[in-house]
Amino acid sequence: MKPFVIGSVPYVNAAPLVRWFETDAGKRWGEVRYAAPSVLARWLEAGEVDVALVSSVEWFRRPETRFVPGLAIASDGEVLSVRLFSKVPFEAIRTVALDTSSLTSSALTRILLERVYGIRPEYRPHPPNLQAMLRECDAGLLIGDAGMTATLPDGYVLDLGQAWRDWTGLPFVWAVWLANPNTPLEALSEVMHEAYAWGAQNLPSIVQQESARTGIPLPLVARYLQEVMVYRIDTRFLEGLERFRAEWARLAEVQ
User: Fold this and answer.
1) Which residues contact 132 (CB under 8 A, 6 or more apart)?
2) What is the sign of the dihedral through the CA atoms of 213, 217, 218 and 219?
3) Interatomic CA distance for residues 168 and 241, integer angstroms
4) Is the CATH number 1.20.120.450 carried by domain 82-168?
């Protein structure tokens, strides 16, 4: 069987899932191509990759696809890397600059602001630069490594993972391995689980490598990958995913 073509985000949180494919053993089974979640979704739809680590919303939008069971990028409480930064109290937000590279994070921002804070601000797409975002809008959403490292000393910061947990009592699934309909799911699942098993076993070295690669302080990367991120999911995480699907559908109806 020829190696799978795998699409992944270039963020720190994906490293434990894909680093195996850089080893001699892993190269036999897959080749990884990196891009933002929105680009990965286009690659998947065009058939340019066999599987992609995409925003959960992509699965909602494409019911003909299947995701690799038991694996995801998830959190049960704070996520650190998906945060809303605001110059004003959250209930006073009128404009939000969105890093639109993740449909899931953008949708969750809308859901939380409406359902928890009772507001429907104006949303504007914006490159992920916090200073520029806050010059134009009351608040800005950042995801990935930028979301984890940005600071706002004189303002308000909302961790979307913690906000979801506080509101629903459930964990949150940020991204799934979504496979094309013609990709053999059983064989793919075996490969992806093997890749993560290797990543979990080699997590200390991955932490060091990712800190060196990104410049993010080692203690922060260690906390993020070893304490915050969840990669193996069970029925409780699927409950969180189904709740998010219901809230996403409701959001689509009222827009």
Assistant:
1) 97, 126
2) negative
3) 11
4) no
| CATH 3.40.190.10 residue window(s) in the chain | 4-73+171-246, 82-168
Q: Which pair of structure tokens corresponds to residue 64?
A: 């003909």
What are the pLDDT digits (tens) for 110-134? 999 999 999 999 999 999 999 999 9
> 4-73+171-246 belongs to which CATH class?
alpha beta
Strand ranges inside 102-222, DSSP E: 122-125, 139-143, 156-159, 172-179
Predicted structure pTM score: 0.94
Through-space distance between the first and last CA atoms of the chain, rounded to whole angstroms: 45
What's the pLDDT tens digit per position in 33-72?
999 888 898 999 999 999 999 999 999 988 888 999 999 9
Helices (H), strands (E): how many in the chain?
12, 11
